[in-house]
Structures are given as C-alpha cells and as structure tokens.
Amino acid sequence: MPAGKDIRFVVVSNPDQLRNRAELRLNRQHVMHNYLAKEASKPTSTDARVNGQRSEGRRKRATSPSTTTDSSTTDTSIGSSASSGLSRTRADKNSQTQAGYRFATFRAENASSSSETSGDSRPKVRKIRTAKSRIGLGSTGGSLVAGISGGFRNYTYLGTKAEEVPFTPDRLGSGLDPFDCWPAFDETSLRVNELKWSCSRRFGSRGIADYWVPALLSARHAFLSTIAISSAHDDIMRRSARPPDERPKHESVQRARVRQEVTSMINQSMSDPQMQMSDATMVAVLHLLNAEMMGCDDDIMRTHQQGLSAMVTSRGGLSMLGVNGQLAGVTTITMYIIAILRETRPGQPFIEYAGNSKSETVWKDSRPFPESPILCRSSGYRTIHNTCAPDGPTSRLLELTRQLTNVFVEGSARHEDASSDSRSEQLREMEVGLFAVAANIFGSTAAEDLEFANMSDRYTYEAIRVTSQLFAHALISRVPFSQAAQQLQATGLYRSLQPGPLSTDAPYMEGCAMHIHIRNALMRTDTADCWGHMAGVLFWVALVAGAAANPEVAPGGYVHRRESGEDEEARKFVAAIVVRCSIVLGFEFGSAVMETVKSMSSIQQALVQV
After folding, report:
1. Contact in structure between 564 and 537 (CB atoms under 8 Å)
2. Average pLDDT of 77-85?
3. Are 334 and 289 within 8 A, CB to CB?
4. Where does this protein have compositionally biased stretches of type Polar residues (predicted)?
5. Helix-, strand-, coil-residue percentages of the chain, each rounded to 5
6. 10-14, 318-322, 363-367, 390-394: which range is least confident on average?
7. How many CB atoms sit inside 10 A of residue 115's CB?
8. In terms of Cα–Cα distance, which of 490, 499, 429 is closest to 459?
9. 3-state secondary structure (DSSP) of residue 496
10. Which 3 state secondary structure label does DSSP give 178?
C-alpha cells in the first residue's frame, strides 16, 4: 500500500511501546482526523461533526469562554494534520463547516487529556508531530539527534546485549510478537529480530521514522538491506576493539551472509521489469553501497556506485526519484562522501543537484544544527557550546580551525576571481593569514599534558587536535589530505595508544599513518550518540581522516588492490564513522549535511587548483 497522509507509521523497539498511552492517543486522533477529512470531501455527508448541524447546547459550549479557541491558535494547531489544507480551501464556501470541523477536532484532542491552565482559561491545543515539521531542523533542547525511542540513551535496554532483548515473557500479551511480521532472510541462521534491533540502536532516529521507514516497508529487499549497513558497522567496531594481534583474519560469517543475501535479492529485483528501476530497488542498492563504503573495497564499491548512477540516469535524473525527495538527497550525499574519501570530484549530475537544492539556512537562527569547522555561523559556534565550554581547550582549538577554514575559503575565492596580475599577491596574502592561524593550531598542547574530566573528553580533544593539525598542514601546503598525512607521518612527532584495553596502560604506536592515530583516539571516546551536540565535529574528523587514509593517487581515485594490516583496519573504522554520522544526521539535518559535504569537496578541489 503506498505511503501517504492517510497512514501513520509507528516504529517501536520493543513490544511494550505498542501499549504506550500517549502513542495510542495519537493513533486515535490520526484516525479521527482522517475520517473527518474524508467526510468533509463528500457533498452528501450527514455527519454532524462535518456539516455543523449540532444541537443548540453544543453550539453554546463551542462559544463559551471555557472551550473557545481563537482562530489563529486553532489553525496553527491543526494546520499540520492531514485534513487542515482541505478545511482551509472550503472556508470561503462554507465557513460554518470549517467552524464545526475545528470544534470536532478540538473535542477529539480533549477527549483523552485535560487542557493545561494558563493566564487565561483557554485550553492549549497540542500540535500533532508530522514529518514536514522536522525537515532539516532541530529543536532548541534535548539531544541534537533524537533516537527512534526518544533518544539514544532514553532506555536502559538499548545498552544491553542483543540476546537479552526482548524481555522475559512475564506479562499479559507476551505470546504476541509483532516483529514476527517482518520479512526474513532465506538463510535461516540470520535472526532478523536481533539484527534489526542492532540496526535501530546504531542508526535509528526520528527522522528515519518520518521519511525512510515507509519506503523500507514497500519491499522486502529495501527493508532487509538496512541490515547490511549495521552488520558491516558492528563487525568493524568489534574488530577495532581488539589488539592487532588478536583480530580475526577475515570479516564475520554473519556479515558475509547478510551481504550475500542482500546482493541476491537485488539481483532478483533487477530481473523483474516492474522492480528493476523502482524506488525500493534503488534504496536497496544505496544501502548496499553504504555497507561497501565501510568495507573499503574500491572495485566492489565502484561497481555499485556505477550501477546506482546508471539507475538514476534511467529514471530521468535525480529530480525524478521518489520518497518525497529524500532518495535524491541521500544518494547525492553518498556520492559526495565517496568522492571525498577517494579525493576525487563527484559526478556532474550530483554536483548540479547539490547546487540547485534549496539549502535551508538553519545556521542563521538559534536552532541547533551539526556545526563543524567547515560549517558554522559567521558569529561562531553555538550548538557545540551546549556541551563544550567556550573557554575550554577543545572549543579554542575548534575556533582556530574555523578561522583557518574561513581564511582559506575566502582567500581561494579572491584568488580565483582576481586577474592574472594580482593572483600572486592574493596568494601571498592568503598564505600570511593561514600561517598565522596554523601556528597556534600546531602549538596546541597534547591531551596527555592537560587535565580533563574523563577519558572520553580527553581523547575527543586529542582526535580533534590531530585532525586539525592534519587539516592545517594540507591547507598551508596546498596538497591533498592523503599527501599531507604522509608528510606529517614522516616527522615522527605523533604517537597514540593502540586499540585493545581502553586505558592509559596500553602500549604506544609510533611512526604509523595519521588516520591510525585518529582512529586510536576515537576508540577512547563515547560515540554512542555520535558525540551529541558535537556530532558535526565527529563527522568532519572522520571525513578528514578518511581522505587522509586514501591509499594512493590513482586514475579515478580507485586502486586495484587492497591494503593489508593496520592501515586498512583504521581506514575501515573511520569510514564506518562517516557512514553512521551521515545517516544519523542526514535525516534530521539533511541540508546541513549536504552543505558539509559540499564544503569539504570544494576545499579538496581548491587544494588541487591553487
């Protein structure tokens, strides 16, 4: 059944949430709104709640001070419902019908909850949450990204082991398992319930529930392909947590089986004329591509990337894709990320789509969004300071990196627009500004010489410090991030604690690649909620480290071999962080994520052109 305004999807993480009274109330309200909207569209409707033919007693109650709402409040509160547009278009023809509908809506909302009292006696009509109200915007309070259950830390069971969920069957209705209706893999050893629980825990958000879940439920391969992302992510995280000499030589059997199953389902859909170019199949290919991005196998990833690009072309371009524009946006962001990690240029159709997309300037008001040194308000950071003291070492370092980015971007723009005679002068001015800021970045103190409240804060600072110095060296030397990383590695000035025991007693690693040092620092930070209000910073750190991990410069940015050893393990780790951040942030702050990858790609192109 196609997803539309008639349907309200409810996504839960355990059976108990199906009996949540607030959610049940929203369901009843949604059904009533839908019914009234359909009745209002029938000229012959006899429902008194629609045509306004009520008894005199009801009319008196509708106009009494205790139950009357002003028209502006009522229009706002129901304007986001599925039937508000209909009631407004009929207003000129039948104002009595509109008044009756508003009163019926008010009674439906007041039936199960009493109104709050304020300075006057008028009840407060609560707004209904809709997908439209969440596009690219963040609330001013709470977590930057709310998890699918209201927050990644809202429920203790989200931190338990997968085998402990669902809970013990000691309650009424425990014999009913609503998750039995989920599609299943052909491979019976793959437990969809457990795998999907892990997927929602790592990648779930309210934005995904609003925008993406209806598309996932449209086809089996679209739904199950999400598990390819989470299984790849979890396998990489488990491997990275072990010391180098204790890791398995190959990926987990579960991850390989999931990928095989998803690939098989996609191949089957491609042989079906009705499904081969559908949104569901494109969603499945997009999921598989994100999983392969974490695997860092360039040949396989290039195959899926080219296949997805061909599907977009066959559909008539990105603007012709469905899922309310989300499919085109997510596809474009994914292609940009691949280009960033491979230090190449995105395809022209994706550049044009990103350039023409309407970017919501959410950074021009007070609402939070994922800030980073490459995407921030002109006045400085605001969201980051919700969790990071403005006068602390981390904030000071981020501010220096923001200033460095501004000098480089503005200087590059002036250099490009200047005449041939003045370009050398513009370049010298930019170099002076860059060196002045970069000197302070390279003079920043290592984390082990500073005091922090906990280990996570300490290594959050250290990951930012190493990344900022790598970023600064690339900008002042005007070389790609991978080349800048090789030059810094040759200095031998960096060291970090190796993975394994998450304590300061682990042995040091010295003389290794820069993205390994960044990985080692990230391993000791709390990434459960992607650094919370600093999620944009984590995304930027992973993008820079991922580009620095690019193994070699090759035609098209791809290599025909796979690196082995710790370099490859760290490369996969930072790619997994990139993919997770892009998904978690992309459905909540799509425009900000789009601007982030566009800014990062522009900086990379400027490093080559200057």
Report:
1. no
2. 33
3. yes
4. 42-54, 110-120
5. 60, 0, 40
6. 363-367
7. 17
8. 499
9. strand
10. helix
Backbone angles phi, psi at 251, to 5 degrees: -65, 165
Q: Which amino acid, residue 399?
A: E
Phi-psi region of 184 (alpha: psi -120 to 50; beta: other; left: phi over 0): beta
- Distance between CA atoms of residues 442 and 591, nearest Å: 32
Q: Would you say 368 and 386 are in contact if contact means Cβ atoms under 8 Å apart? A: yes
497 φ/ψ angles, rounded to the nearest 5 degrees:
-75, 135
Helix (H, G, I), strand (E, B) or coil at 173: coil
497-546 pLDDT, tens digit per residue, is 877 666 566 778 888 899 999 999 999 999 988 999 999 999 999 999 99
For residues 160-184, one letter each, b for 16 or more C-beta atoms within 10 angstroms of the residue's C-beta and e for the rest, the string is eeeeebeeeeeeeeeeeeeeeeeee
Distance, in Å, from the CA atom of 259 to the CA atom of 181, rounded to the nearest integer, reads 22
Residue 23 confidence (pLDDT): 82
Residue owning tokens 């014999």: 175
Pairing of strands 508-510, 495-497: antiparallel
- What DSSP string runs through 323-345? GGGHHHHHHHHHHHHHHHHHT--
Coil, helix or strand at residue 375: strand
- Cβ(442)–Cβ(371) under 8 Å? no
Strand partners, 495: 510
The answer to whether 123 and 107 have CB atoms below 8 angstroms apart is no
Distances 431 to 412, 540, 606 between C-alpha atoms, Å: 10, 23, 14
Is 475 in a helix, a strand, or coil? helix
Cα angle 203, 465, 532; round to 5? 30
537 torsion bin: left (phi>0), alpha (psi -120 to 50), beta (else) = alpha
pTM, two decimal places: 0.73
Q: What is the pLDDT of residues 225-255, one digit of tens each?
A: 999 999 999 999 999 888 888 888 889 999 9
Q: Where are the beta strands (DSSP E) in 414-515?
A: 495-497, 508-510
DSSP 160: S
* Length, in residues, of the chain: 610
Asked if residue 496 lies in contact with residue 509, where contact means CB atoms within 8 angstroms, the answer is yes
C-alpha 5/C-alpha 37 separation (Å) is 11
What would the pLDDT profile of 112-151 be if each residue is shown by its tens digit?
A: 343 343 344 333 333 333 333 333 444 444 567 766 444 4
What beta strand segments (E) does 486-578 contain? 495-497, 508-510
Angle at CA 232, nearest 5°, toward 229 and 236?
Answer: 140
For the chain, helix (H) and strand (E) counts, in that order, are 24, 2
